[in-house]
Amino acid sequence: MEPKLPDSVDRRTALKLTGVAALAGLAGCSGDDDDGGNGNGNGNGNGNGDGNGNGNGNGNGNGNGDGEIIEWHAGGEGGTYFPLSNEFKTIVDDNTTHTLQVQSTGASVENVGSLSQEEADFALIQNDIAFFARNGTGIEAFEGNEIQNLRGVATLYPETIHVITRPGADIESVADMEGMRVNTGDLGSGTQVNALQILEAVADLQPGDDFDEQNTAFGPAADQIRDGDVDAAFVVGGWPVGAVEELAETGDMGLLNLPDDELQAALDAAEWFAEDTIPGGTYQGIDDDVTTVSVQAMIATHTGVEADIVNEITDTIFNNLDQLTLKTEFISRDSALDGMPIELHGGAEGLFE
What we know:
The chain folds into two domains: 7-11 and 21-157 and 298-323, Periplasmic binding protein-like II (D-Maltodextrin-Binding Protein, domain 2, 3-Layer(aba) Sandwich), CATH 3.40.190.10; 160-295, D-Maltodextrin-Binding Protein, domain 2 (3-Layer(aba) Sandwich). Helix 3 (81-95) links the parallel strand 1 and strand 2. The chain is built from ten helices and ten strands. It has helices at 7-17, 21-24, 81-95, 108-116, 127-135, 190-203, 218-227, 242-250, 260-269, 307-319; strands at residues 69-73, 99-103, 122-126, 150-165, 181-183, 212-214, 232-237, 254-255, 274-278, 290-302. The longest helix has 15 residues, at 81-95. Strands 1, 2, 3, 4, 5, 6, 7, 8, 9 and 10 form a ten-stranded mixed β-sheet that branches. By secondary structure, it is an alpha/beta fold. The chain is globular, with a radius of gyration of 19 Å.
């Protein structure tokens, strides 16, 4: 069944995405529909982390048989995508002739834009965003604009939705955020999409009308909680998230434990949400388990990357999972297709059977 979001979520999200340059060129740039293309138009990207998604168009191959520079787009440095991507980089650099060039980005939605434009070879994205992009649904920026060259590689781990609260804000439910200052994540990020979904579906809260929406990456959001500049902040990432760990160690914070009715409302609103738990003790000062929901992190690529490159990079990573220190309890060959929402790249087919 095709997921459906409230129309108001689509419209508001689209307004927020209009300033994300990585998506500005999606129309007409969705690529072909043939896995295993020539892989020579990937662009190195400008590496400035400003979210504009511009590549320099030089291509990633050195053409001399000594390996490729593989453009890999991650997420913000305070989340899980960036440090995990750098662990993948170590594995690939040490075990192949290729080099991963990891870039910090605004994460899922921006990364879809980079893959669509072939400015990244691989990227980490959320499985719900992958579904929206590939099927041209869910977010108005994707409506009627299927990203035809987007392909799946592997799913990795649950991305837990943390709702951080400011001590003294007396937030014990999503509904309590009415009239509050709420950081919903970077503009155009999967975090923002999920936050608006939950606020709308659970408590019918709309930005501007019902709460003051603010948008930053995870690190600045944690600083806002510490400084009392926002009352709540959404962070989506595999626990423990670095920015949340640092906040818990240097200041006071709370984590919202979703009440049963709000948990069920979130699960009913979107089939890609799954019930999840942040174990007590994950963050300093949070001793009890926290009930929330999660989506799934995944590796994505595009049809312009050669099948043998996708196969070698993916196989190398999954052959050396013992070198990882992050999300080791979740990432495995056995679960690499769990929750995969789009068709696999030809280079990933057969790797996990």
